[in-house]
Write a structure and sequence with these properties.
The chain is of the alpha+beta class and 411 residues long. It is 32% helix and 25% strand. The N terminus is likely disordered.
């Protein structure tokens, strides 16, 4: 009897130990699952996800993409491939795909410090051309966007882009957490309009920290980037959402709304490259004839995400020849580089003119920059019109550098 009780005691101990260590924070499993459940703020329409899972199970080719900032790229853990997006890819293959899951492909289009506005310029090239038109995409810009109307419009444009290219694409909206908050309130309005499934990390993380469920250091490596455990938590939340959609009764297919949630729209962004083959765009580079080799680098390739760009030649002639572009557009996004502080090449300020009127002055040498992208909407109209855009160095910066990283426009 004593032996039997001893064995039973050991069994109970092992069960308890397993319960306490079965999740990244080593807390009670029931408590952890409740935390995971609370992050699912809307299951949206499940029809698209169910079709994606059916294709995965059947061994058909399925393309998964993740588009976001540094959290999506994998910042925080020692290895970026331990980021939530990579963990999610491995987890969904392991749970739903037959065999070794070779029918499931993944493209991580996360890039540090970037938000929805730049995402609209990057989408076609970095998501579709680098990977494929996605069957499933996670969009995560909640801690990089500032919550204004432009970011809300850009987020909607990304959702619309994915759904228009593939009406059966399952779009998941992910709102990561930061100590300074996130922009989930603004994004949820758009996501609800499109009936998207959504996960919001912020409220649950804040509540858990407040109640000492886990320490700040257990989730954050700094003010925004999760630890490997934090990324695992994010992955678990996404997988719980997928599981919930999978088990639920199938919804009627959701049509793409005819109208937009927020206008004027930023949908249909076209990217402009230095080897311009767009007949709608005419460019005279002026003094911006060099290529900047120090633009932002992707972790997954360790190469520049913007190898083609327009760099102002340092110590150029006193004429200060402007970059001139003529095009017909409704919207125009200019992306310039913030030169890394301490770099021996000194960058200066550039003035932007649209149809002869100065609309902005941007400082490419702003203190605290790290070769990061700075996107700005410089033309924003409801109807397409012909415009002339000039970019030239401001007085006092004629012999300094400035890089136009990329440009994007809508018709």
């Amino acid at each position: 009897m004593k032996i039997k009780n001893a064995i039973l005691g050991v069994g109970l101990f092992l069960m308890c130990a397993a319960t306490l260590s079965a999740n990244p924070f080593k807390i009670n499993e029931n408590d952890y699952q409740q935390m995971v459940e609370k992050t699912i703020v809307n299951t949206g329409n499940n029809a698209r996800m169910k079709k994606v899972l059916a294709k995965i199970r059947a061994g058909e080719k399925v393309y998964i993409a993740a588009l976001g900032g540094s959290v999506t790229e994998g910042a925080g853990p020692a290895k970026f491939t331990d980021g939530y997006a990579y963990q999610f890819f491995r987890a969904i293959k392991a749970k739903y795909a037959p065999g070794d899951g070779k029918n499931v492909y993944f493209n991580n289009a996360g890039l540090s410090g970037t938000g929805s506005l730049l995402g609209t310029v990057r989408y076609h090239h970095d998501v579709v051309e680098v990977g494929n038109t996605p069957d499933l995409i996670i969009i995560e810009f909640a801690v990089n966007d500032n919550g204004d109307g432009i970011c809300q419009r850009a987020f909607e444009a990304l959702v619309r882009e994915a759904l228009t290219a593939n009406p059966e694409c399952a779009v998941l909206a992910l709102y990561s957490a930061a100590t300074y908050g996130n922009t989930s309130v603004q994004k949820r309005l758009v996501a609800d309009f499109y009936s998207l499934p959504q996960v919001n990390m912020l409220d649950v993380v804040n509540e858990s920290l407040k109640n000492n469920v886990f320490k700040k250091e257990a989730y954050y490596t700094d003010i925004v980037h999760p630890t490997i455990e934090g990324h695992e938590f994010m992955c678990d939340c996404l997988m719980a959402l997928v599981d919930k959609l999978d088990k639920a009764k199938t919804d009627s297919p959701a049509a793409i709304p005819e109208g937009f949630f927020k206008e004027p729209v930023l949908y249909g962004m076209k990217r402009i490259f230095p080897d311009n083959k767009d007949s709608n765009v005419k460019i005279d580079v002026g003094d911006f004839k060099e290529t900047d080799r120090k633009c932002q680098t992707l972790k997954k390739t360790n190469t520049s995400d913007f190898p083609q760009n327009w760099k102002k030649k340092l110590d150029a002639k006193a004429e200060n020849l402007p970059f001139k572009m003529e095009l017909t557009c409704k919207n125009l996004i200019l992306v310039y580089k913030g030169q890394a502080s301490g770099d021996p090449e000194k960058f200066g300020k550039a003035e932007v003119y649209v149809d002869g009127r100065k609309v902005a002055t941007y400082d490419g040498g702003k203190e605290g920059s790290w070769n990061n992208c700075e996107p700005h909407l410089i033309i924003d109209e409801r109807k397409a019109a012909k415009h002339t855009v000039l970019i030239k160095m401001a007085p006092g910066s004629e012999k300094l550098g400035f890089t136009i990283v990329t440009l994007g426009y809508t018709l």
